[in-house]
Automatic annotation (TrEMBL):
Name listed for the protein in its UniProt record: AraC family transcriptional regulator
InterPro entries recorded: Cupin_2 (IPR013096), Homeodomain-like_sf (IPR009057), HTH_AraC (IPR018060), HTH_AraC-typ_CS (IPR018062), RmlC-like_jellyroll (IPR014710), RmlC_Cupin_sf (IPR011051), Tscrpt_reg_AraC-type_HTH (IPR020449)
GO molecular function: DNA-binding transcription factor activity; sequence-specific DNA binding
Entry keywords, A to Z: DNA-binding, Transcription, Transcription regulation
Residues in HTH araC/xylS-type domain copies: 174-276
Organism per entry: Vallitalea pronyensis
Taxonomic placement: Bacteria, Bacillati, Bacillota, Clostridia, Lachnospirales
SMART domains found in the cross-reference section: HTH_ARAC
Record-linked Gene3D superfamilies: Homeodomain-like, Jelly Rolls
A Pfam family it matches: HTH_18
SUPFAM superfamilies: Homeodomain-like, RmlC-like cupins
Length: 277
């Protein structure tokens, strides 16, 4: 895929939310680089998508990965590593950064991959557009909108992780887990019968549940809860929807049940989230 020449300039933005220098830091942008070999040891989380150029990633124990367009490199908090830019092809990357606590929280919830240093994606015009759009949101954000940028970064990372998962499906079992993830990510207003799903995949319920947790990191139930609350956060940004309407759309018995689970996961009530973000 050919990258427009106008993008081969360093163009970045960053903010510090709530005056927090590390946990409140959010940043993104395009970076150009010349040939380099550099040791990194980030205290926050950084990830970059290779758009053009070739290079290598070397872990602390000496393991190497070749880098090419479409690779997403994770600079995990506290993990030493070396990145090398080499060859004659011009280098361009799009990076995102956020605080280490949010990174670890998303990892514990099974929303992002915190194990692999390199995630594989497929570079496409749509992917490039998402990079441009994210930077545009950073540039245009008002003081009140800065808090929303963290959610924008999360959405970008969810998309990268989703692409990585799809490109790494190598077996029937992986396909079954992917299909279940798809169902659990969208059918919020319907009760999903896992025993019936397992039967559709020619698999026992216990095997499907165990397989899901092995590959995703959390149980199907916890995955569903996390996805539903993530969708709730997005819906709360729509002022035309009342909290009661959101509760119904997401399959909760009532607004109280929704608020109770939302606060348990997020730490604040839906009303507080809507007012603050």
């Amino acid at each position: 895929m050919k990258i427009p020449s106008r993008l081969f300039v360093t163009d970045t933005r960053y903010y510090h939310m709530n005056h927090e220098s590390i946990e409140g830091m959010v940043s993104c942008g395009f970076l150009t680089k010349k040939k380099e070999k550099r040791l990194h040891h980030f205290i926050y989380y950084g990830g970059f998508l290779v758009l053009s150029g070739r290079g290598r990633y070397i872990s602390q124990d000496g393991q190497e990965w070749e880098l090419a367009p479409g690779d997403f490199v994770q600079r995990r908090p506290g993990v030493k590593h070396t990145t090398i830019v080499e060859g004659n092809e011009p280098w361009l990357e799009f990076y995102v950064c956020m605080g280490p606590l949010m990174y670890r929280t998303l990892g514990k919830m099974g929303m992002i991959n915190t194990t692999d240093p390199i995630l594989k994606t497929k570079l496409s015009p749509m992917m490039l557009h998402q990079c441009i759009q994210l930077l545009t949101r950073f540039k245009q954000a008002t003081e009140k909108e800065v808090k929303h940028l963290l959610i924008n970064i999360q959405s970008f990372l969810f998309h990268v992780n989703s692409l990585h998962q799809k490109l790494n499906i190598t077996s029937h079992e992986d396909r079954c887990v992917e299909l279940l993830c798809e169902s659990l990510s969208h059918c919020f207003d319907k009760k999903i019968d896992l025993k019936k799903e397992a039967k559709n995949y020619n698999m026992s319920y216990e095997k499907l549940r165990k397989l899901f947790k092995e590959k995703i990191g959390v149980s199907p139930h916890q995955y569903f809860i996390t996805k539903r609350i993530n969708e709730a956060q997005s819906m709360l940004h729509d002022p035309s929807l009342s909290i009661a309407e959101i509760a119904i759309k997401l399959g909760f018995y009532d607004a109280y049940a929704f608020s109770n689970q939302f606060k348990k996961i997020v730490g604040i009530s839906p009303k507080q989230f809507r007012d603050e973000f």
